[in-house]
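User: structure tokens for this one?
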Amino acid sequence: MMNNANEISHQTKLFGYIGAEAGVSRFSAVINKMFKANSDDVMMIPMNIREDDLYFTVANMKKSHVNGAVISNEYVNDIIEILDEASSMVKRTGMCDIVFKEGEKLRGDIFTTRVLTEYLKDIRASKVAIIGVNPHAKAFSFLACGFNVSYFNENLEELMNFTQEVEVRDADLNRIATGMSLDMSNFDVVLDFSDFDSLEMIEKLPLHSIDMKNTKEFSCLRKRAQELNTKYVSYDDMIDKLTAQAYRLITKG
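Assistant:
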């Protein structure tokens, strides 16, 4: 078998890990160790793909020998139009982080947000502050049952529309903007899904700050957490949990 000899056979299932700098991520190496440990004839290959080449690369999977791919954080909002089929969560949020090839069709799903919610349960987080209204924020909101969530955004009208879209009743809506002064230390965790260049308006952060960005992406939350000497958790810090979930999805079929 492939994983015993580290060779690829005609029967080996191939999956890609697609990112701008996928080769420096531990994702492929960690999940390949799991395949090998369990004698699975599966291999994940890191694929460094520029943004300009993303559409062609993913679309070309339909006629390739690749069985699917995990999509790195920077591209999760950019492949929806390529999919032939999508889970209800993908359709409702507009993001996709894992793709499976079925025949010559591509089916998309989301797994990273489910890992995030489980991580928050592991650290016993209850009070959660979400900054921003992007697809990540949508996905978390749909899965946020059991959490006490407060929503923050620069534009309150946009935030009201967002909470209506994700069907949150009586939502706690708050404005966050440059020039303000915010103390967020009463929360258990801050999730930043915004497009802010700086979070200097936050004077105090809680014990945990998370934004699901990989270490090669700029993170204003990471910068602010370092300045305030609080814990910051990135996509890469959750690699073990992310790969475990991806492993289950890839091998169950």
